Amino acid sequence: MTALLYVLLAIVICVAIWQIASIFNLKEAIATEKDNNTQGILFALFGVFFYGLMIFSFAKYSVTLLPESASVEGEDYDTLYAITMVLILIVQAITQFLLFYFTFKYRGIKGRKALFYADSSKLEAIWTIIPAVVLSGLILYGLSIWQNVMDSSGAKDPLIVEVYAKQFQWEARYAGADNELGRANVRNIKGINTMGVDMTDKNAQDDIPTRELHLPKGRKVIFKFRSQDVLHSAFMPHFRAQMNCVPGMITSFSYTPKITTKEMRLNEKTIAKVDGINKIRAEKGEDPYEFDYLLLCNKICGASHYNMQMKIVVEEPAEFNAWLQQQKTIAQIIN
Amino acid sequence: MSNHHKETFITKYVFSTDHKMISKQYLITGIFMGIIGVFMSMLFRLQIAWPEESFGIFEAFLGHHQDGGVMSPDIYLALVTIHGTIMVFFVLTAGLSGTFSNLLIPLQIGARDMASGLLNMISYWLFFISSVIMVSSLFLEAGPASAGWTIYPPLSALPQAIPGSGMGMTLWLISMAIFIASSLLGALNYIVTVLNLRTTGMKKTRLPLTIWAFFVTAIIGVVSFPVLLSAALLLIFDRSFGTSFYLSDIFIQGEVLHYQGGSPVLFEHLFWFLGHPEVYIVILPAMGIVSEVIATNSRKPIFGYRAMIGSIIAIAFLSTIVWGHHMFVSGMNPFLGSVFTFTTLLIAIPSAVKAFNWITTLWKGNLQMNPAMLFSIGFVSTFITGGLTGIVLGDSALDINVHDTYFVVAHFHLVMGVSAIYGMFAGIYHWFPKMYGRMMNKALGYWHFWITAIAAYGVFFPMHFIGLAGLPRRYYSNTAFPLFDDLSDVNKVITMFAILGGAAQLIFLANFFISIYKGKKASQNPWHANTLEWTTPVEHVHGNWPGEIPSVHRWPYDYSKPGLPEDYVTQDTPLFEGEEES
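The joint structure predicted for all components is written out below.
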C-alpha cells in the first residue's frame, strides 16, 4: 500500500515538473551579456573558493600526514617528494590563477571584438622547453633515488626476512643463524608448517617463523615477499616501502630502519597526530591509541582486505637480538 | 540519395544506420549506465564515511548483501569494481566517444554518413548487449565481479577467494569481450570515415580539433583494445579450462591448486597495455570537445592549432609506452621501472602545451558564458589539478609510498574522471541543438555546473591528503586501524560533497530529458560556430545535407578575423576578396 502511494507521489511530481517545464520554451537559451557578467564574476569567486580550499586543506589536514621517514632510504624519498610538491604547487597556483583571471577579465561584452591571435612559436617554445627542462631534472633525480632504493646488492651483513601473505594474515620468517632462508613452496603446507617451508632443506632448519615483525635499527633489512593465494601488497608507509606479494614468485624490497618505535613515539609530528586520534577515540569512548609501525595490505585481496595487518617493532640491535633469541626455530616447532 | 527510402519505426529508432540516431542511442545508454555508476559511488561513499551505521538505502537496494542496513564487505568490493568498470568503459568510452564521434565525424568532415552504417549499427547493438549483460550480473546470487575494475588474477580467477569471481566474473568477461568487439567496429569505422569521406577542400590541416581527437582516439583503441581481449581470453582459459597463464603455486582454503608456472604479472602487463591508453581514449575526445567549445565561445581561434594536433599525436604515441607505471611495485624488474618513469613524465610536456594553449585562447577573448563554456573552463582546471599529481605518481621513486592509496584515487578521478565528464557535459550542452533541434535550459545548466564544480573539488581535493596519510584504497572500513581514526572526519566531508555532486546530476537529467520535448526550438547555428555541422538543417535528414555537400575553403577557427563582417565565418564560405587564408 505504501509502495503504491510512493509510486503515485512520484508520478504526480513528474507531471508537475513536466507542466512547469513549459517555461523552457520561453526562456532565452543563449548566454546574454548579463549572463557573461554574472558567470565571469562567479568564476572569480570560484577561484577564491578554490585557493581557500587548498589553503584550508593544507592547514587542517597536514597534521594527519605521515611523520618523517623511519628508514634511511626514505630520506631521499622525502626530499624528492618535497621538491616535487613545491614545483607542483607553484605551477598549480600560477595556471589556475591565469585561468580564473582570464575568464573573469575577458567575460563577453557586446560589440567587443576578440583578438585574432592564432599562434606564436615563441610562446609555444617557452612552454615546451621549460617543462622539458624541469621534468628532465625530476626524472634524473628520481631515477637515481629509484636505483638506490631498489638495488640492495651492496648491502653489508643485511638481515634477511621473509614476509608471507595470505587471506587475510601476514606471517614472517627470519633466516636464522646462517642468514639464508630455506626453500619453500605452497605444496609443503601442512599443519603448523603454514608457510610451506621445505624441511628437507638444511638452510631451513634454523629459520624462525613469527607473527610480528621486529627490525633492528641501523641494519639493512632485505625483505623477500611471497603470497600463497592472491595478490597482496606489503605496504609500510612509515618506511616509504611497498612491494606486491605475488603467488608463484618471490619479490624483494629493502631498507634500513633508523628510528626505533620508542623514538618515533616521541617524534613531534607523531605526538600531534596521536593526540588528534585519541581526542576522537575519547569522544567515541574507545581506548587510547599508542603509536606503532604497521605493515598493511594494499592490494585488493578479498572480503577482509581492510583488516590485514601486522605490527612492526623497530628496536636497538641488542633488544632485537634478545627478542630473536627467544623465538623458536622452525625445526624446534615442527619436530 | 538515401533519404528516398521509407523509414519505419524500427529502422528509424531501433535498428537505425543513421549516425545521428546511433549517436543518440549511445548517449542515452551512456547516461543510463552513468546513473547506475554514480549511484553505486553514493552507496560505497556512505559506507566509507559511516562504516558502522546502518542505512535504509542499503536495505532497499542491496538485498541479501546487507544485514539490517549494514553493507557486507563483499558487496562493497563489488560496488567499487562495477562503478569503475561502468564509468571507465560504458560511460566515458562508449558514452563519450560513441556519442560524439558518431555525431560529429560525418557532420564536421562533410560526409553523408559513416563509411559503413551497418557496422555502426552493429557496433551500437553490441554495446547495448554488453551493457545488458553487465547490468544483469548485478542480480546474481553471489554478486557481480568484485576483484577491482583491474580484475587482477588470482583474485578474479578463483571463486574461493571472493564470491564475485564465480558467475559474476564470467559475465564481466563476456560483457567486456562484446564491448571490445563493439568498440573495435566503431573505431575502425571512425578511422576509415575520417580518412576517406572528407569533403572537397577538407584538408587534414582544416579538420576541427574534435575530429583530430576522435581520429587519434580510434587509432589508440584499435591498437590497444585487442590486447585486453587476449588478456580476457587467457583469463577465461585459466578460469574454465585449467590452463596456467596467470596462476601458479596457489594454496587456498586448505588445498593446493594444480596451477603451475603462470604469473599474475603477465596479466598486469596485458591489462595495462590497454588500461593506460584507455585513460587517453577517455580524455582525448574530451580535449577535442573542449578545444572546440573554448574557441567558439571565446570568439577566438584556438591558440596553436598545429601544436594542439602535434600534442594529441604525441600524447597518443606516448600513451602506448607508459603502461608499466601502474606496476612499479608489482615485482617487475626495477630497470623497467626506470624506463617507464622516463616515458611517463614525458607525457607532461604535450599535456602542458595543451593546458597553456587553452589558457592563451581565453586571453583577450570575448567569452560567451554558455553552459558548455563553463564546463570547458572547469575541464581545464580539473585537468591541471589532476594532471600535476601525475608527476608524483609517474615517478617510480615517489610512487612507492602513494601507490594504491587514496592519492591515486584523487589523481585519476580529477584528471580523467571529472575532466572527461566535464568534457562530455560540454559536448552535450553544445551539440544538444544539433542532436534534438532544441536548446537546453541555460539557468539549469548554470546551476548544474556550479554545484558540480564545487562538489567535485570538495570530494577530490581533500582526498589527496588521506592518501598521503597512507590510507589504502578499496578498504571496506578504516576502523581496523586506529592510525586512520583521524581521517574519518575527512571521509565524512568527502561523502557529503559526493552526495551533493550526485544530486546536482538530477538537475542535468531533468534539463536533458525535458529539453528534448519542451526546449526552445534551436536556430540553425545558435552558437555562431564555424564548423560544418551548423550548415545542416535543424530538422535531421538522412544524408545530412539536403543538396550538395558543401566544400570547404578555410580552417575552422576564423573567429573575429580582422577585416571580416562577422566574428565568425563558416568553413564552407569562400575566402573574401583580398582575404588571406589563416
